What does this fold into?
Amino acid sequence: MRKFNLLVLNEWLKISKKRSNIIPYVILLVLSLAVGYMTRTFAADMYASAADFTADSLQPRGIGQLLAILVIVGTAGIVSREYSQGTIKFLLIRARSRTAILASKYVTVLLYTLSMQVVATVGLFLSGAVFFGLSGGEAGIGEILTSLLYSTVYCTVYATIGFMLGILTKSTGVTIGATIFATTIDKLVISREFYKYVLFPNLNLAAYKDGGAPMQGMTLTFSIILLCIYMTLFLLAGFAVFRRRDVA
Amino acid sequence: MNSTAHNVQEPSGPAQEQTVLEMQGVSKLIKGKAIVDNLSFKIHKGEIVGLLGPNGAGKTTTIRMMTGLIRMSGGDVLIHGHSIRKEFKQAISQIGAIIENPEFYPHMTGYDNLLQYLRMSDGAGVSRIKEVVELVGLQEAMNKKVRAYSLGMRQRLGIAQALLHSPKLLILDEPTNGLDPAGIREMRDYMRRIAEVEGIAILISSHMLAEIEQICHRAVVIQNGKLVTVTQLTEVPEARSEVALTIRVDKLEAARTVAGALQGVKVTGADEAHFELHVQLPDGAVPELVAALSEAKVGIYRITENRQSLEEDFLKWTGGNRIA
Ligand SMILES: Nc1ncnc2c1ncn2[C@@H]1O[C@H](COP(=O)(O)OP(=O)(O)OP(=O)(O)O)[C@@H](O)[C@H]1O
Ligand SMILES: [Mg+2]
It folds into this structure.
């Protein structure tokens, strides 16, 4: 386990030692303030408190999509850049299995996703506190955590798609492009029976709040099972290819 | 002085020679073409072996298979008896390698890069970084970003990286590429030292034949992925009975007569323009020939040995400049 933690530390350092690593966090904070300010200016009575504001804005319909894009941009290169830089050679001639190395990269992607979520939540809450005040409103810590959970699920699925694409294509650019494109079309609804088995309508679990559903005949359990199946497939494909591939 | 001491032979021979690397009929097929074809050879403890071949011979492909970066289509590679296919971790932990250009994380310092590899190896402590960095002479550059390194500096960092976990086998693909003459010399001295003192086996692939000739004990020559020959490079004095000499003299005809009259000496030619006589004779007969020439009042200006260089051998083996 210690060995694995050291692998994760390595991956985390590779990301965080980049000087540009601070930028997405700054963007999140600035954006939180901007959203708070605009809402306050144009729809002053929309939220009664910081908790209301945070719980609502954090969802995939709120800043969730941007959060997903930032996560993708931050982690898309975690595998592909090793290939393009040529560092993959030194990485793979160590007494560590390819599975362990790739798993440490995936854990790092998850940690990165989580860190972005936390910063976004804190940023939104601060912004909410400034523009809407702390007292009043209906939402509490429970609502904020629920929103955080929905947002994390949404971003994690996209991070996993990016992770797989990075392995399959070995191209950071293609990975970022394809995954961001997916985030822009995932809110489309095609009213056909088959569409509920597609990944996209199942991504936003927040849609089930207050008894709603993205499409007729879909339930929260259905979506969760489907997301699990998709994630498993993505990861299996990524690990299978990475373990077997010739590094030339 | 005790002259008998010279006659004591170093204990050597198959019994003492520990095999560090064993290639067992290794092949690599890509799209039906054999890039490496049924390659077998061994490297023993403390031995420095050159891997030679023209461009595209399959040297890098061979090294990639030894280090598990690519799968082999057939055969196996054993490192200290561990198969790189079936016991990857045990096998690879004995190997330190540079494969083609050494590439590091450019946004991190040399020290941070080495720390990355230290965290992935078992047993070595942080103090080991200081040791290897001193060995390759990079102390000054440790806190610089690798982005700012020259090729030679990256090559040195590559060697530091390869030695970090104290491997038993060092595999170096074009290690002197980018090094300055002083760096090449340092590297050579260092390779010899670790081979002799620590018993590390070293495999070096290179185009610089002079380089290989100076440092390696043996050379494995491949072409089109096939083994061409394995040749001994370090001389065993007794083994070289016949020598070929060029002697520059003042009286060429007289010299030719004197040399021709001596037993065992063959005159192979003469160069009138340069007053040079070419002879072939047993090593032991050289003083005799020199004495005979002096006696006949033939003045000697130069005696040079005509040795076929590895380069000539190499061109002979591989048939000149054809690239596969
Ligand atoms: N992935 C690949 N697909 C197809 N052919 C390949 C591949 N990798 C190598 N080759 C071919 O295999 C042959 C050997 O390549 P390799 O890089 O091993 O040669 P080398 O001996 O290292 O040459 P050099 O001295 O130029 O470094 C070349 O003809 C090359 O074109
Ligand atoms: Mg090569």
About this structure: Residues 1-15 of chain B have pLDDT under 50 and may be disordered. The two ends of chain B are 56 Å apart (CA to CA).
